[in-house]
Specification:
Order of helices and strands: HHHHHHHHH
Distance between the termini: 42 Å
CATH topology: Tetracycline Repressor, domain 2
Number of helices: 9
Structural class: mainly alpha
CATH architecture: Orthogonal Bundle
Radius of gyration: 18 Å
Strand content: under 5%
């Protein structure tokens, strides 16, 4: 799995072979094929693992004022993305095959989990009108693009990304959602 994370995150999916992954892991191609049913199976396993771990990166501390909770969650997310740089880049669109329906489904699942966690943190429920869910899902798109640009180009600082994402989520929570 670790070798898969590194290889898939380092170059576009079509350029990755089972032999590349096996060499990175120090195992045979047959072993990768046996346990993961090939390159695509390993990619899906890696993305599922990332999705499961990513959801836990959102901080939950209802005792904090909303501004502090948003800032803490943003810090946690940026820490997670930085610690999983290659796969964060892959998940944001430059690594795996973005037209694969199962990969797209995993990205959608991650976005829904993030939205549910934010809703639970700030509204105490996930039972909200579709327009509220839409607003938060749109925010996750901004998040993915900002993190991608930060990690891929280095043209912006972590502080810049933190500021944009914190202000964007806070604005969504305090101005957009109440209007819904």
């Amino acid at each position: 799995m670790e070798a898969g994370r590194r290889v898939f995150g380092s170059r576009p999916y079509p350029e990755v072979s089972v032999a590349d992954i096996a060499a990175e892991a120090g195992v045979s191609r047959a072993l990768v094929n046996h346990y993961f049913d090939g390159k695509r199976g390993l990619l899906l396993a890696v993305l599922r693992d990332l999705t499961d771990r990513a959801e836990a990166a959102i901080q939950t501390d209802a005792d904090l004022p909303v501004e502090e909770m948003v800032s803490a969650s943003t810090d946690s997310w940026l820490d997670f993305a930085s610690a999983n740089r290659e796969m964060a880049l892959a998940f944001s669109g430059i690594g795996p095959a973005p037209t694969d329906p199962e990969v797209e489904g995993l990205v959608d699942d991650l976005r829904d989990r993030i939205v549910d966690r934010v809703l639970e943190n700030h509204l105490g429920t996930t039972d909200v009108p579709p327009a509220v869910r839409f607003a938060l899902r749109a925010y996750t798109g901004i998040f993915l693009l900002a993190v991608h640009d930060w990690l891929a180009s280095g043209a912006v600082t972590r502080e810049d990304v933190h500021d944009l994402l914190s202000r964007g989520l806070l604005s969504t929570l305090t101005e957009v959602l109440p209007a819904r």
